[in-house]
Design a protein that fits this description.
By secondary structure, the chain is α/β, with parallel strands linked by helices. It folds into two domains: 28 residues, no CATH class; 194 residues, 2-Layer Sandwich (Nucleotidyltransferase, domain 5). 39% of the residues lie in helices and 14% in strands. The chain has a five-stranded mixed beta sheet, sandwiched between helices. Strand 2 and strand 3 form a beta hairpin. The longest helix is centred in the middle third of the chain and has 19 residues. GO terms for molecular function: nucleic acid binding. This is DDE-1 domain-containing protein. InterPro entries: DDE_SF_endonuclease_dom, RNaseH_sf. Pfam families: DDE_1.
């Protein structure tokens, strides 16, 4: 780099040597350089931590220990006093993700409209160990009327006030609510909604450890998948609840490490 000399500027050098980061990267490294190669080495600093892959997460012993500890906590509580709740979306147009093709042919599914642009229903549901507890459906018209593109915090709190809390009052005392760490699940707001609904039965709200909902919540994969299959007319949801709780290893005596990769 030579300042003021044609063809030796940052942009010219980036173009000539095809630098991936462009002239901005060269300028950054030039300011960083103090005449030694060590000054150009990357240094760990603050800011956002490095993201890890799914494979790294799955093989991390600490990750599975956190899941195991949470499962042990849940196993000390009767399944009927564990109420899981979650949200999901169901598109009016739901195409199969797999198909059969002859060798050498590209896998294609001919559709009238991409599913990403299809009308969407938002579902909020809660179950305990033996039955559905409460649910709510936001139709495409509801989404349009409320000017929202998905479930919002106030929607969840309104559902608790009008649907979930009355259902719990009719069902059982001393229950624990289990949910993921979605930003719509604010503990203070949700507990206030139960208080406003005069529902003293809820002992507390517990958050599932990060990135482990599919291993702990019976709703996340098993029941929501069954629900979407039910919409295709296959089988009823209630028959799947007991199996979903077993798969989540939250029933008393279950092996909390049974699904850890080896």
């Amino acid at each position: 780099y030579r300042r003021g000399i044609h063809g030796c500027g940052f942009k010219s050098l980036a173009k000539r040597f095809k630098i991936k980061g462009g002239h901005t990267l060269i300028a950054q490294r030039y300011r960083q350089w103090d005449g030694t190669s060590e000054s150009l080495e990357r240094k760990s600093g603050g800011g956002r931590p490095r993201s890890v892959t799914k494979q790294e997460v799955a093989l991390d012993p600490g990750y599975w220990m956190e899941i195991a500890n949470f499962r042990r906590f849940l196993q000390r509580i009767g399944n009927d006093r564990l109420i899981f709740f979650d949200e999901t979306a169901v598109y009016c147009t739901m195409y199969p993700r797999r198909t059969l093709v002859t060798p050498g042919q590209q896998a294609l599914i001919i559709v009238d409209k991409p599913s990403a642009y299809a009308s969407c229903y938002d579902l909020i549901g809660a179950i305990n160990g033996s039955q559905p507890v409460a649910c709510m459906v936001l139709t495409p018209d509801d989404r349009k009327e409320k000017d929202i593109k998905g479930v919002r915090k106030y929607i969840v709190n309104e559902w608790i006030l009008k649907k979930l809390a009355p259902a719990i009052n009719r069902l059982i005392d001393n229950v624990h609510l289990i949910c993921d760490k979605s930003r719509v699940h604010n503990e203070l707001d949700m507990m206030q909604a139960f208080k406003d609904a005069n529902c003293p039965s809820v002992i507390g709200i517990h958050y599932i450890p990060t990135a482990s909902t599919k291993y702990i919540s019976p709703l996340d994969n098993t029941i929501w998948h069954s629900l979407k299959e039910t919409l295709r007319g296959l089988y009823p949801i209630t028959a799947k609840i007991a199996g979903a709780y077993r798969k989540s290893a939250i029933s008393y005596g279950a092996d909390v490490f049974y699904d850890q990769p080896h």
